[in-house]
Fold this sequence. Notes:
This protein is mainly α. It contains 9 helices and 6 strands, in the order αββββααααββαααα. Strand 2 and strand 3 form a beta hairpin. Helix 3 crosses helix 8, helix 5 crosses helix 8 and helix 6 crosses helix 8. The chain is globular, with a radius of gyration of 25 Å.
Amino acid sequence: MNEQVVIVTSAGVARLQDEAARIAEIRARGCVPVECGPEIPMAPGRGPMMRFTPREMRQTECGGFVSVKTGEAGRDAARVADAFDAMERASLKAHRAAEVRRASAGQEPQAYSALFTPGQISAARDYAALVERVTASGVKCSSLEAVHSGGAGGGDREAAIFRDFQRLRALHRRIGDGLAKEVRRIRPSKNGGVKRRAIYVRRLVDMVCLGDMSILQVLHSHGWSKDGGASKALRLSLCSALDRMQGYDLAKMKKGVDT
């Protein structure tokens, strides 16, 4: 039996160590929180997981209501982290660093303000799930409309898909096609030679909710440099769009008519 000798140089060892570290980092991103139990498999392709506690309101014998954990065997549940989790985590990290600087300077602490409300985040995730259902249906809206207009009616599946199409169209109307960030009249040479492009609100919503991109990534993809004012303005535009998707603009219009 012949013996083979493999000689590994210092550069080869370094490459092996880098590859091992890269694989370990990928595996760490795909790990499931311990509080969720061992039944959920690790899947690096799924992305980072966020732990949450599922609850529901149940009526007591006295007639009141109490919040009860509904996780299997008292465990927490997990979901895939998205762009809103990443932006909130980065914002909280920056706030904690700012608090350390304020404390060292003898200044008063400031309370943390979340970037998005729970309703806005819920609207964004519902929109992403709706687009995924419509895309996965494999049916064109024009063909569904032909079925309904012809009086055939279709089955329960077709009716459900048609409702999804109608809801998606309504959300697109609420989002609008206006500008979320107007292009400033600055020469490209002052922006690193990159030509800035206008950011439309529909494009902004799709890139964040569907493309899983942060506000800074949206700015960068349109040729905008990292700027606090631009980032805040774009976030407020996104918040306004998510509020409209919840129907807040319709509530204001109705209130104006009643008064």
